[in-house]
What we know:
The structure holds two protein chains of two kinds. Chain A has helices at about 5-10, 15-35, 40-60, 70-85, 90-95, 100-110, 125-140, 140-150, 155-165, 170-190.
Amino acid sequence: MTSEQQLVKAMGRGDEAAFERFFRDYAPRLYRFVLPRVRGDAQLAEEICQEALGRAMQKIAGWRGEASLFTWLCQIARNQLTDHWRRTVQREQFEVLSEDDPEIAAAVESIQISALERPENRNARAELLRLVQVALDRLPMNYGNALEWKYIDGFSVAEIGSRLALNPIATQSLLARARRAFRDIFSTLAGGAGATAPGFDWEDETS
Amino acid sequence: MTPPSRKLEHLLREAGHRPEPDAQMLERLRAATHAAWQAQLAERRRQRQRWFAIAASLLLVAVGGLLMIRQQDSVPAMVVASMDGRLLRAGEEVTAPAAGLVLLRMPQTGTSLRLAPGTRLRWRTAEAVELLAGRIYVDTGHESDALPLRIEAGPVSIMHVGTQFVAERLADGVQVLVRDGVVRMSRGNDIVQLSRGETAKASFASGTAIERTVSASSGEAWSWADALAPPLLVEGRDLRSVLQEMAYQAGFTLRFDQASIESRAAGTMLHGPAIELPPTQALHAVLATSDLRVLPASSGDDVLIGPR
């Protein structure tokens, strides 16, 4: 049983600590997933997130782990977005999403970029940097945090290990896996968005 | 740090931390999500209770149906005894009239039960009866290999090993008087084995030991049961065997004053109809037709036969 399945099972038993962990780990990421899809409308993003999380609570006993928990939440949020656009007159303006591309959808599951946000319509560099953050959110929680702590905050391996309750060897191993996962997801996102990552030759990266 | 790692570091640093949602917004979102989670937990609990209630109902229906089917399909319960020609089956309850005695015979074992007035018992199986009220006299006959009969009264169980005894259900326990043979009385782990002339009382209350005392195996305490002793068959039998039969039925020990007296009794043949009297009265009736008598030296449960 995966840690996500254990978490959901504990929530099913009414474990408050499990709920808090679920909310802490997934709600901010879900909000970041929704916000660009409503053109940065924070109030609407909150509304969509609330609807999506409420719906998720109703259905969470049925989640069996076929997809990751975050992917499942993103799918629910996407359905809520679709319902929202159907109810509003803004449908024409917002409904075009790159989720229509089945190859990209299959590769990155729930990450799509609205047409209005494509790099050719905006600053390509800024978009790529945004995709970095999207890719971090798409990683398992520990991976994304570890990469931020290591490369943005400059924490040592020992400090990261202390935060994750891992020994240095296990921490090094986790960082290596996180880098590989980030590379895969970011390459897919950047390619799917019709952009390249200037100055980065991912084929050269070893681990 | 490898060059690709430096590239990764550069890219991540340039992108910066992922933006943290507004704390107040997150708290509102948390409260709403928590409420939805609690509502769902409550709904699942209600569903489980509904399913449990449905399952319990279905189980009751199924069990009831099975019982009905079993009752419909089962053969009649085993005949366990007869009473005045009427067959009694396992599960039946028998109540002796308030002013009358009842004699039951168990055809499969040869055991007879005599019920004092007002006694109630229920046949559980061919080997077990439940004494609900009153007292019963059990006579397994002379066959030592007779099937054991277990008498149950509350937490007390009484098992004979070829014997005659009385089991009486009192208000607060069970009392057993043994006339002959061996009786095993138990209540939980407390087990006593009683033999001729012993009495024991087991209380229904827990924590008390079974009390055992000495008692007479004949006389007044047994007279009610002796009234239902089977008719004494005399035709073609010698006097000694008839006297032994009466001693067995009345619970006394038969002794002959002299060996010659016993030989004389063994050589005396009797003829006539069955004697339908209590054993003690039948003894005097039979001896009256012979040259033998009960000597005055007899006492208690010992009956001494000597010349007239």
